[in-house]
Design goal:
With 255 residues, this protein is an alpha/beta fold. The protein is built from five helices and 16 strands. It folds into two domains: 88 residues, Translation factors (Elongation Factor Tu (Ef-tu), domain 3), CATH 2.40.30; 121 residues, Rossmann fold (3-Layer(aba) Sandwich). The longest helix is centred in the middle third of the chain and has 13 residues. Bound molecules: flavin-adenine dinucleotide (FAD) and FE2/S2 (inorganic) cluster. The site of FE2/S2 (inorganic) cluster has 12 residues, from loops.
Length: 255
């Protein structure tokens, strides 16, 4: 883990209350999918944890939603502003555990870390399909970026304005071969990776009978394993989301 100064290269609104932040630094950056950064914001005591959506040779791309004072302050920061980041933090996803075909399932901005994961899976020669869920059309983000990588993307919206009306589980049932459900299930995915609201991830883990990984969010103090503020109970005992997670095997999560 390092503490490094980054400079804002761009900070643009891309969807409803949602911003894409590109940060660059001196020297090289190495982050794996599922890892996050912890951003120090001037005037705020606690850092803000944000998943890395893409890793550049000299920077990171983040997507964040304005939900409170800290993210509102971030949304008002101009290019050139310097920010101090802790990175890389947390365990990442495990793309190497996918045999052939991965299903990525994002809810809202849970799509963000799945973009870097898709790049890693494709680079390893795996087939990738994505299902993304949003409340409404103006919240959709990262779908076109994933399609630009060659990933088929199925959308679910709660209001039915785009794609399947309903939950990501409805879009999965409508568009994908569920493993074990049909003779042609050889073409089905053999592993899933999900990030988004807890009820969505619980529904996904219940519906899909293949191995899966879940990225959890928890309020954080130090972000680096010292304060135990992010401790949760898992099937393997108490774990700190910031260092033991945020990515956990689906069997480990006690819903
Ligand atoms: C591992 C991890 C990855 C995340 N990745 C993203 C991402 O890619 N994009 C994104 O928009 N958000 C992400 N979040 C959530 C993000 O950290 C919060 O939305 C953000 O900290 C809210 O700050 P605020 O000052 O605007 O809100 P406030 O509610 O004013 O924040 C008050 C305090 O609560 C903490 N907090 C509030 N909501 C959350 C939350 N959901 N999770 C953890 N801490 C929270 C804040 O960090 C701050 O310390 C992630 C959280 C975690 C733990
Ligand atoms: S936030 Fe301090 S141990 Fe996880």
């Amino acid at each position: 883990m390092q503490k490094r100064i980054f400079r804002i290269a761009s900070n643009e609104g891309v969807a409803r209350d949602t911003f894409r932040l590109v940060l660059r630094t001196e020297g090289t950056v190495a982050v794996r999918s599922g890892q996050f950064v912890d951003i120090a914001l001037p005037g705020f005591y606690l850092r803000r944890p944000i998943s890395v959506s893409d890793c550049l040779p000299d920077g990171v791309v983040l997507y964040y939603k304005v939900v409170g004072e800290g993210t509102r302050a971030m949304s008002e920061m101009a290019p050139g502003t310097e920010l101090e980041l802790l990175l890389p933090l947390g365990s990442g996803f495990h793309p190497e555990k996918c045999r052939e075909h991965a299903l990525l399932i994002g809810g809202g901005l849970g799509a963000a870390p799945l973009y870097l994961l898709a790049k890693e899976l494709l680079a390893a020669g795996k087939q990738v399909t994505a299902v993304l869920g949003f409340n409404r059309a103006d919240e959709i983000c990262l779908a076109e970026e994933l399609r630009a990588l060659g990933v088929p993307v199925h959308i679910a919206t709660m209001d039915g304005s785009v794609g399947t009306k309903g939950f990501v589980t409805d879009a999965i049932a409508a568009n994908l071969v569920i493993p074990g459900s049909a003779p042609e299930s050889r073409s089905a995915f053999d592993r899933f990776y999900t990030c988004g609201p807890l009820p969505m991830m619980k529904a996904v883990c219940t519906a899909l009978d293949v191995p899966g990984e879940v990225s959890l969010e928890e309020r954080m103090g130090c972000g680096a394993g010292f304060c135990y503020g992010c401790s949760i109970q898992t099937a393997r005992g108490p774990k700190r989301v910031c260092v033991d997670g945020p990515v956990f095997d689906k069997e480990d999560v006690l819903w």
